[in-house]
Amino acid sequence: MLNKIVADRRQTVTLSKQQRPINALERDIRPRQFLFGKAIAEMGWLLIAECKLASPAKGRLCETYSVSELAKIYSNNGATALSVHTSPHFCGELEDIAKVREVSRLPILRKDFIIDEYQLYEACWAGADAVLLIAAILTDEQLVRFQKIAYSLGMDCLVEVHDAEELIRVQKTPAQLIGINNRNLKTFVTDIENTFSLLANCDTDRIFISESGIATKQDASRLKRAGIRGVLVGESLVKAVDIAGRTREMAYPDG
After folding, report:
1. 148 among known catalytic residues
2. Which residue among 55, 83, 87, 160 is the active-site one?
3. CATH number of the domain residue 43 falls in
4. What domain range includes position 172?
5. Which of 62-66, 114-118, 155-159, 202-206 has the lowest average pLDDT?
6. Which one of 16, 52, 87, 122 is the catalytic residue?
7. pLDDT (tens digit per residue) in 200-249
8. Which is the catalytic residue, given 16, 181, 182, 194?
């Protein structure tokens, strides 16, 4: 599934380059101000709440709210930052960043399958404060180069790992914010024990968050006690009967 998604994104990036060349993006870009990293640095615990409508594995997840409406709920109930999917595999599009920006002042992470530096300039042009870099689909050289480009544009990077091998690779780069994804990329099964199993290998001078499979307030509290600085949560928020209440639980797990 991951290989198919990446192949599809390569095609769409090629098309985007033709429709909006990189020099046109650069001409209109207003560099960001590292607001994502600043917001995270100020928090002892953080919630990155995902404006997520669907997933490739489970299909449509939220029929009730739009991306903008989810952003409003999260912003009013304790989220530190917002994750906006811009991949069509998640029913997302680049324009969703601007829609979210209209209703929230929280920093925005562009969540996508970034495989070309063009997407970094595109993210900045669209108004993202940070980008997701997935170690599993990038070479060591790309991980370093993409971070440098993002930083030059005033954007932070959340660098995502899934296992010990990827963690070792990423900790050889300048990455300061690392996400441990609890989803197995071969089976797409999630298990938050993946985060706990990797903790012993995590550099203490970096910020780690846990992604995927955080379903309850108890999950968030357990991760917090273990030393994780925050969580990135999507499905358990958008599928909750009371999204506002679930957001508060994840934002204040010990409250």
Report:
1. no
2. 160
3. 3.20.20.70
4. 2-28+37-251
5. 62-66
6. 52
7. 999 999 999 999 999 999 999 999 999 999 999 988 998 899 999 999 99
8. 181
Q: Are the CB atoms for 147 and 133 separated by under 8 Å?
A: yes
In the residue annotation, 239 being an active-site residue is answered as no
Q: What is the dihedral of CA 32, 38, 40, 43, to 10 degrees?
A: -150
Q: Average per-residue pLDDT in the chain?
A: 93
- List the catalytic residue out of 87, 111, 122, 249: 111
Annotated catalytic residue, options 16, 77, 122, 211: 211
211 has catalytic annotation: yes
- What confidence tier does 62 reach under pLDDT thresholds 50, 70, 90? low
Here the tokens at position 187 are 């089976």
Is 181 among the residues known to form the active site?
A: yes
Active-site residue among 212, 217, 235, 249? Answer: 212
Residue 52 is a catalytic residue: yes
102's CB contacts (< 8 A; 6+ apart) are: 68
Residue type, 94: L
Residues 109, 130 contacting (CB under 8 angstroms): yes
CB 50 within 8 Å of CB 237 = yes
Phi-psi region of 236 (alpha: psi -120 to 50; beta: other; left: phi over 0): alpha
251 alpha carbon, distance to own chain's centre: 16
Strands, E, within 86-155: which ranges?
108-111, 130-134
The set of residues, in sequence order, having a beta carbon less than 8 Å from that of 163 and lying 6+ positions away, is 194, 198
Query: How many domains in the chain?
Result: 1
- For residue 59, what pLDDT is reported? 52
Q: pTM for this structure?
A: 0.94
Q: Residue 55 catalytic?
A: no
